[in-house]
Specification:
Pfam families: HTH_40 (PF14493). With 364 residues, the protein is mostly helical. Among the domains are: 2-101, Arc Repressor Mutant, subunit A (Orthogonal Bundle); 114-242, no CATH class. Helix content is 59%, strand content 2%. Strands 1-2 form a two-stranded antiparallel sheet.
């Protein structure tokens, strides 16, 4: 099953360095510094926020089943840290990894906006469909004020009558879905709500089609990211839908972006923390995120090249990304921040590969 291969692959990539909750938070897209950094450090960035409606119970049930099957095992004495067993590695090799990661999933530049964009697009389709049938009263798919207000303004700004607006939106969606693989396009379209036609959830689609619910989530997210990439690159071709997207997309989280702006003004970490009324540790989290996502950022004020090399060599010798294990092998003057920065820089230099450093499993 797809879900088996997905979790086996992620456990393989994490190599027992994080608890199983780390994988759950990755799939959910938890906006914590740990989850964001893990998506880079373990080369699993496409899977970040790929299953945002996943509930913990069903995920935990899946992990327990893999454990009962003997495909995963505890990583030493660490509780809830797992690695693949020999049989688990064998099972993973039977699955085509190219099918595990659809091409669209790798379009992660808009990941911070994809949740809001999807809600706005759904509400736009629902609203315009209702207007076309002269229905001003309907139950909206979301009542989030920021989403409803954004859609209202976008429709008002269009300066088109209801039929023209419906035609424009239909044309843009048709053009966007046309080049997308049929399975992905169908999954995407089936979730849109129109007049007297309620969109399905990915779980409902999985139940009705017999597909793996995890695969449905991944294929849908692949379609969504393909669409967002196309719209971002050709705004003039999709004027209505482009208006639903953030005009200045950034892979940085909003709060890390604010910290980055202050750092560029020459403020120290302590000064930024004081200015923003945040803890220094939070600003350090932002610094690591900036290092991962802003390729031209110079972190030499915080980490020398010699120290970086020493940290990376130690991590490679230990074959781990666990900060405590690395710190225990280094002299006390080296901080956890410097270790995190060194690992982040090393990840960026190698590139966010989908297959980890020790990709022996795929070669067996």
């Amino acid at each position: 099953m797809y879900c088996d291969a997905l979790v086996l692959y992620l456990i393989h990539q994490f190599r027992g360095d994080r608890t199983i909750s780390g994988i759950y938070h990755l799939l959910k897209g938890k906006k914590s510094s740990q989850s964001v950094q893990d998506s880079y450090l373990f080369h699993v960035k496409p899977f970040f926020h790929s299953c945002d409606d996943l509930d913990r119970h069903s995920f935990q049930t899946l992990v327990e089943r893999l454990n009962v099957c003997g495909w995963i095992q505890s990583a030493g004495s660490e509780q809830m840290h797992f690695i693949l067993s020999t049989e688990g590695e064998r099972q993973l090799t039977r699955f085509d990894l190219n099918k595990l990661i659809p091409d669209g999933l790798c379009n992660t530049d808009q990941v911070n906006d994809e949740g809001n964009f999807w809600l706005k697009l759904q509400l736009s389709v629902q609203t315009i469909s209702a207007l076309q049938y002269h229905q001003s009263a309907f139950l909206p798919i979301t009542r989030q004020p920021s989403v409803t207000e954004s859609v209202r303004k976008r429709i008002m700004k269009a300066s088109l009558n209801r039929d023209q607006l419906a035609s424009q939106l239909h044309h843009e969606l048709h053009q966007l879905l046309l080049p997308i693989p049929l399975t992905e396009a169908d999954l995407f379209a089936a979730q849109l709500t129109g007049f007297r036609m309620t969109g399905l959830t990915t779980s409902q689609i999985a139940d009705s089609t017999g597909k793996d619910p995890y695969e449905c989530r991944i294929l849908f997210k692949s379609a969504l990211r393909r669409i967002m990439k196309e719209v971002a690159e050709h705004k003039a071709t999709y004027p209505f839908i482009a208006g639903l997207m953030k005009q200045t997309a950034s892979t940085l989280s909003l709060t890390a972006g604010e910290t980055f702006h202050l750092l560029k003004e020459g403020l120290s970490l302590q000064q930024v923390a004081k200015r923003r009324n945040l803890s220094v540790s939070t600003i350090e989290d932002h610094l690591v995120e900036i290092t991962l996502k802003e390729r031209n950022f110079n972190s030499s004020d915080f980490l020398s090249h010699e120290l970086e090399q020493q940290i990376v060599e130690t991590a490679n010798q230990l074959n781990t990304r666990q900060l405590k294990s690395i710190k225990n092998q280094l002299h006390d003057e080296i901080s956890y921040l410097q270790i995190r920065l060194a690992l982040a820089k090393n990840t960026v230099q190698k590139g966010s590969l989908l297959i980890g450093e020790n990709e022996e499993t795929s070669k067996r």
